[in-house]
Amino acid sequence: MMFNVIVILVLAIILLAAAVYAVAQKDLLYAVLATGVISLILSVFFFIMQAPDVALTEAAIGIALTTIIFIITIRNTSRREDEVPVEHEPDRVEKESKIIKQ
Amino acid sequence: MKKLLVILLLAVVAYSLGTALMSVKFGENRLGNVQDEGTVSAFYLNNTPEKLSVANVVTAIVVNYRGFDTLGEVSVLFLAAMGLGSILYHRHKEGEEEEAILKPSSQLIQAGSKLIFPAILVLGAYVFIHGHLTPGGGFQGGAIIATGFLLMMMAYKDYKVSHKVLTWVESIAGVTFAGIGMWGLIVSQSFLENTLPIGALNNLFSGGIIPIIYIAVGFKVAAELTGVLDTLLNIKDKH
User: Fold this and answer.
1) What residue in A sits closest to B226 (Cα-Cα)?
2) Calpha distance B190→B87 (Å, rounded)
3) Residue A60: which of B6, B10, B143 has the nearest Cβ?
4) Interface test with chain A among B1, B123, B144, by most A beta carbons within 10 Å
5) Is residue A96 part of a domain?
6) What range defines the domain where residue A55 resides?
7) pLDDT tens, N- to C-terminus, chain B (239 residues)
8) In a domain, A9, yes or no
């Protein structure tokens, strides 16, 4: 009984740490992998709470499919999360071209 | 700074939710005692094994008692896949140069995925064929099969799935689901009525229409998710 409680506590701490890491990380690839870890631990929790149907769904969709779809999206957009998006700096292109000319 | 604010805000939300839910004891049964006749959970748990011969009560609720909801869910997934495909699907024209966004995988991954791919397909098929006996069902099995195809797409750069075949599989599975519903409407005046013989508990051929519907749902979900993944992996780079 004590052992179960310790395992659940450790898993919950890893879950919270992964969630905070996913929010704080600037590199989106690592953030997406952290959400994959969240899904993995959640599916273990669902199994512990006697909901194996939900655990199977979470394992197949949360860990594999969602993570891969996000990774494909990151491949097609940008990997770093910029503080200021490019669209909000209309004169950035001119500045850069001036620098190149000089 | 922005991140700090977000985490702070989340902490405030979590604190307010936590204080609100603190009075509810964790893991407590709030739907009433299962032994107590008259609650909904007691009805399902007591009657499902005898009346429907279905060992997995969750499947019985999802496919039989709430079958119309499941039809709606399948339609939602179909609409999502269709919307994504209509925006992103790129048909390869004749003579067009193909530029895949994936780099070729190493030989180890290629050989390993070829080895493990049939096993994943069999696991997925097992999960949705035995949906009324063991945990799992059509959605889970379909998602597992889609991950198998995803593995092959990632390991082999030129692995192609035929969208024509996917469309046909999906259409036939959807028509099967709706057709079984209409058959129930014709035979016993109720949509998705369980009209087939229910068989004996814990047999593979039991539960009437439940296994048939879940097999159809499994094929449908697998085809939709595979199509979505294939569409996403074949996006042409605009730059």
Assistant:
1) A65
2) 38
3) B143
4) B144
5) no
6) 2-82
7) 888 999 999 999 999 998 988 887 776 666 666 677 777 878 888 888 888 888 888 899 999 889 899 999 999 999 999 999 888 877 766 555 555 556 778 899 999 999 999 999 999 999 999 999 998 889 999 999 999 999 999 898 888 888 899 999 999 999 999 999 999 999 988 888 888 888 888 888 888 889 999 999 999 999 999 999 988 888 765 54
8) yes
